[in-house]
Amino acid sequence: MSTDTMERREAVSPAGTGSTPAPAGPTRRRRPDTGQLAAWAFLAPVVAYLAVFYVWPLVRNVDLSTHDYTVRSFIDGNAPFIGFENFADVFTSPTFGPALINTLLFTGISIAFQFSIGMALAVFFFQRFPLSATLRALFLVPWLLPLIVSASTWSWMLNSESGVVNSVIRTLGGDQVNWLTSPQWALTSVIIANIWIGIPFNLVILYSGLQNISGDIYEAAALDGANAWQVFWRITFPLLRPVSAITILLGLVYTLKVFDIIWIMTRGGPGDASTTFAIWSYQLGFGSTLPSFGPAAAVGNLLIVMALVCGFVYLRVQRKQDQS
Q1: 93-323 maps to which CATH number?
Q2: Which entry of 27, 45, 81, 139 is 20 to 30 Å from 231 by CA?
Q3: What are the structural domain ranges in the chain?
Q4: Distance (Å, rounded) from C-alpha 13 to C-alpha 197?
């Protein structure tokens, strides 16, 4: 190769390289994923709803429970921070023990009877017979009535002097029972009313679960000679476990915060005989001339913690069932 040719190539090529660089083209901007944008668009209303109606009230309730709020400081927002003093006042209050016991008894007994009776009625109505749909619809009446109507009806029925329940007891030769004014019977009265109101919910959910069980399984059990109890215990009940778990969880969360039934029937009395955490929280915050917003919020937070514990237990049990 001649010297003139080499000099011409070096003049064309940049220093230190042996080739001509490619011309820089325009930068291509990455277009957003349409599917991802649509997903965020659908998710945004849910996130906004949860933030406004769940997260913010929860944060506000925690703020109330850790500050010394009075009526004046509640308005101007200058309440001093006191940490966990409100919780200490709640735990050392003489009402805490009876309220905790009443809450556990009210919730546990109500859920046990609501689920048991609801399961029995669901299995009963699952059998095909005339007017089964009509009778099943009639059982929904307690669930459809406003709670104030149901609680007022039970208050009238359990009235010591003019109630129909005591009238029947006196007709049968028994003694009058002070259902709503006796410390021994006040909690029992509100539990009975709450059981009556909650049975239709369990009936509807469990009946829906029964409809998802294949009829071939029952036909195979009948061919094997299984009786009714064996069919229920070895087929129906195990296959209803997922539905039963969510039914019990929803019942627990609902029953923990029941307020209106107890307040209309007994107002938490006599004394603390039927006072639950929900009633106590209302009494502290609104039931006196000098409201205690901080302790009331602390009791409300205890209810939230109890509901969260029930939810975590359900998730753990459900995870174990999925792994098994």
Answers
A1: 1.10.3720.10
A2: 139
A3: 93-323
A4: 90
